[in-house]
């Protein structure tokens, strides 16, 4: 596979998964905003109540969403870089070695 076809393949992958990438970015940004709002509201309250525990649940949930969506975005970039560098998916080694 020559360099031109590799770069064309990566461009094709990026174009095909563009809506998915934007969806993951949108969920990441909205989850980060929710996390900030929950932290501010939790710290603004002076005593611990059931409602404050809801803020903690909001922090944990949005943190998990940020982690998942970021891992999916990084997986897409890893796949593109592996394609450019001729790295085997399972073995993680260069096929020329």
Fold blueprint:
Layout: H1 3-16, H2 18-44, H3 50-85
Helix pairs in contact: 1-3, 2-3
Question: Which key features would you list for this structure?
Answer:
3 helices; single chain; 97 residues; mainly alpha
How many separate helices? 3
Mean pLDDT over the full residue set:
82
Shape: rod-shaped
Helix proportion range: over 70%
β-strand amount:
under 5%
- Total strands: 0
Main beta-sheet strand count, sense and barrel state: none
Low-confidence stretches: none
- Structural class based on helices, strands and sheet pairing: mainly alpha
How would you spell out the order of helices and strands? HHH
Could you explain how this protein is built, in words?
The chain is an all-alpha fold and 97 residues long. The protein has one domain. Helix content is 79%, strand content 0%. It is built from three helices and no strands. The model has no long low-confidence stretch (mean pLDDT 82).
Question: What is shown here, in short?
Answer:
This protein is mainly alpha-helical. It has helices spanning 3-16, 18-44, 50-85.
């Amino acid at each position: 596979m020559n360099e031109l076809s590799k770069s064309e393949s990566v461009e094709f992958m990026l174009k095909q998964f563009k809506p998915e990438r934007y969806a993951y970015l949108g969920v990441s940004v909205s989850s980060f905003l929710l996390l900030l709002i929950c932290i501010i509201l939790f710290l603004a309250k002076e005593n611990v109540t059931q409602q404050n525990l809801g803020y903690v649940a909001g922090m944990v949930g949005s943190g998990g969403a940020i982690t998942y969506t970021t891992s999916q975005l990084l997986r897409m970039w890893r796949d593109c870089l592996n394609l450019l560098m001729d790295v085997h998916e399972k073995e993680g080694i260069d096929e020329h070695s």
